[in-house]
Amino acid sequence: MELILDKVPALVMYVSGIGFGLAFIQAGYSFKGVLSSPLGLVSIIVITPALLITALGRGVATITGKLHEDSVAMAFMQGLIELLIRVAEFVANTISYARLAILLLVHAALLLTVNMLYYSYSSYAYIIVFPLAIFNIMIILLEGLIVYIQDMRLHLYEWFTKFYTGEGVPFRRILPERERIRIKWL
């Protein structure tokens, strides 16, 4: 039931949502133009059943007895809330991964610039070697900063929000019992 009501509609919504977004951009940010685009029309036709299954599937499965929820009204409400959360997650995750793609393009552009400088002034290689080394070190530092920021985001946003609850016993170090020994020299 989870596969039918949750996983497959989520995948279909995401893929057709990307198609709809591309058709929306192609139509000049016009909803009227999306319907005239073949990609936009196919995306709307494909996304509609996935939206309906996500929003109404839990309620229908509860009515038919396939899913045992508290009440039918609660199942329908959970489906609608799940739909809203799912759409917000898709938009946020797409923007997040687009950010990573932009950082990759910036990295590639900086490296291409350094390489173009080298090949443009290769006859003056003895003068340009030091600035190129500095530029490469700056690019390496930028990459390290990008990795650090991504790592912190994953730890704080993804890891802590899913597994850390803040309950339990405070941390105390485990120390072995210490024995003081005196050594007497003869």
Report on this structure.
The protein has one domain (2-160). The protein has 186 residues and is an all-alpha fold. It contains 5 helices and no strands. The longest helix is centred in the middle third of the chain and has 49 residues, at 72-120. The radius of gyration is 28 Å and the shape is flat.
Summarize the biggest pleated sheet: none
Chain-averaged pLDDT: 84
Number of helices: 5
Strand content: under 5%
End-to-end C-alpha gap: 81 Å
Radius of gyration: 28 Å
- Overall morphology: flat
Number of separate domains: 1
SSE series: HHHHH
Helix content: over 70%
Query: Total strand count, please?
Result: 0
Name some characteristics of this structure.
186 residues, mainly alpha, flat
Could you provide a short overview of the structure?
The chain contains five helices and no strands.
Indicate the topology.
Blueprint: H1 2-26, H2 31-36, H3 38-64, H4 72-120, H5 125-163
Helix pairs in contact: 1-3, 3-4, 4-5
